[in-house]
Amino acid sequence: MKDLFGKAILDYQTNNNPEDLITATSISEADEMSVAYLFRDFKAMPKIEQEALGLARGKVLDVGCGAGSHSLYLQKEKGLDVTAIDISANAIEACKLRGINNALVKDVMELEDEKFDTILLLMNGAGMCGRLNKIADFLQQIKSLLAKGGQVLLDSSDIIYMFDEDEDGGKWIPTDTTYYGEVVFNVSYKGENETPFNWMYIDYNTLQNAAHANGLDCDLILKGKHYDYLAKLSVK
Q1: Backbone dihedral region of 200: left (phi > 0), alpha (psi from -120 to 50 degrees) or beta?
Q2: Quick check: is 50 in a domain?
Q3: How many domains is the chain partitioned into structurally?
Q4: 88 lies in which domain range?
């Protein structure tokens, strides 16, 4: 991976002529994304993210923290002990420059011997496992990091709306995917192309079934305006 997302984040933080990211998926056309959006403050965040940050408590793990906007709010405004992790070294460098006390280049699947009261998987964070057949291992790892009485706060979207309907009202789902929420992401920045990577948008019912199968309760906290939602996972 060239870490183009991280390069864009660090360019913005250091005022190094940042440009828009170009993102596309296997089911959507290329679209421009302003890097500034990743640096949004609490007031500019979607209601779902605001709700999640309001529920955050205790020792917090922010998984896939990106530019660290969620961690920064929890650390500065709520005074919480936050650990921000991301596989992007450039993003973590930006987080440190922004003043996040504990920012680490780390894959959550490699984290061990630590417990957290709140684990954040925001901006479709559960999708980082890439494919539905990997969700069990992913949830088991997240579960192992929860302190007694801990919670996982995650948001995602049901992207069924992106597929065409047939005459009977059903959806035309490509036959080359196991689950319709699985996509391949392509990212470009400053003329460079990132290595395509797998991502997943998981609908609430599928998440709930996966959670229950892995010993977790799943509660719907908030529905968004466009097929998105916030859910809370906790140990049964």
Answers
A1: beta
A2: yes
A3: 1
A4: 44-180+201-235
